[in-house]
Amino acid sequence: MDFRSLLAGGLTMRRLFFLIGTIGLIIYLLSYESQTGSWGRSWLKTSQRMVNLIRYENLQDYTPSGGQKIVEINGKLAANLEENQLKWVPLGRIPQHLRFAVIAVEDSRYFQHGPLDLQGIARAVWVNLTNRTYAEGGSTITQQLAKNLFLNQEKTLERKAEEAVLAFLLEKKYSKDQILEMYLNQIYFGPNTYGVGRASEKFFGKSVDKLSLAEAAMLAGIPKNPGKYSPVKNYPEAKERQELVLERMLEAGFITGEEAKRAKAEVIKVGKAMKQVMAEKKGKR
Question: Could you tell me the domains of the chain?
Answer without folding.
Answer: 3-284 (1.10.3810.10)
